[in-house]
Amino acid sequence: MDRAKFFAGLRSALFGGRLTQGQVDGINAILDGWQASQMTDLRWLAYMLATAYHETARTMQPVAEYGKGKGRKYGVKGKYGQVPYGRGYVQLTWDVNYEKADRELGLGGALLDNFDLALDQDLASKIMFLGMEEGWFTGKSLGDYFSGQKADWLNARRIINGMDRAKDIAAYGRKFHSLLLEAGA
Fold first, then answer.
1. What pLDDT was estimated at residue 36?
2. CB neighbours of residue 166 within 10 Å
3. Terminal Cα distance for the chain, rounded
4. What architecture is the 3-182 domain classified under in CATH?
5. Mean pLDDT across the chain, nearest whole number?
6. Rounded to whole angstroms, how far apart are CA atoms 58 and 74?
7. Where are the domains positioned within the chain?
8. Rounded alpha-carbon distances, angstroms, from residue 32 to 45, 90, 111, 139, 140
9. If you average pLDDT over residues 140-145, what whole number do you get?
10. Cβ-proximal residues to 59 (8 Å cutoff; 6+ apart), any chain
11. What is the pLDDT of residues 21-64, one digit of tens each?
12. What is the mean pLDDT of residues 111-138?
């Protein structure tokens, strides 16, 4: 893929004409994770980029949830003595999701000892890639919405969070997909 062409397209299509170095670094981390993975359906990458775009408020960096869960059911200290508010590219929430990520990634309790590890770019990328591929968060996975001729950009939001902002994220996903194709991915 021609990353320069991809970034040029992104600048005008989704980022108001300019990208910060942090946005470039975050997108590159996701693209590098994609290249290192066994995934082949480009729609998966496009939808993950769209999810990160939305969930990180376009920073493309793993972030802590604004408000840190205040006023939400998960916004109180859980069994690990930490508030399991959203962190990372996908805004990982709830003790059970931190447990799943720790177990599936073989972290030996490190994530449970420090939820902020989900803010590490490499770990956030792994959580997003495997979590969305395997359906960790809601039981729904990328393969449920993108396989063969099936491309359900709207309902793919169920992988992360019901239908919250589903139309917006579907539009972002389609745009990322188009730009990836134009760049020769």
1. 93
2. 17
3. 4
4. Orthogonal Bundle (1.10)
5. 97
6. 24
7. 3-182
8. 11, 17, 23, 26, 24
9. 98
10. 22, 23, 26
11. 999 999 999 999 999 999 999 999 999 999 999 999 999 999 99
12. 98
What does the buried/exposed string (b/e) look like for 46-85 if buried means 16 or more CB atoms within 10 Å of the residue's CB?
bbbbbbbbbbbebebbbbbbeeebeeeebbeebebeebbb
d(Cα 140, Cα 127) in Å, to the nearest integer?
15
Contacts of 160 (CB under 8 A, 6+ apart): 51, 55, 90, 91, 132, 137, 138
If DSSP states are collapsed to H, E and C, what string results for the chain? CCHHHHHHHHHHHHCCCCCCHHHHHHHHHHHHHHHHCCCCCHHHHHHHHHHHHHHCCCCCCCEECHHHHCCCCCCCCCCCCCCCCCEECCCECCHHHHHHHHHHCCCCCHHHHCHHHHHCHHHHHHHHHHHHHHCCCCCCCHHHHEECCEECCCHHHHHCCCCCCHHHHHHHHHHHHHHHHHCCC
Sign of the Cα torsion 179, 28, 130, 114 reads negative
Say what the pTM is: 0.96
The whole-number pLDDT of residue 30 equals 97
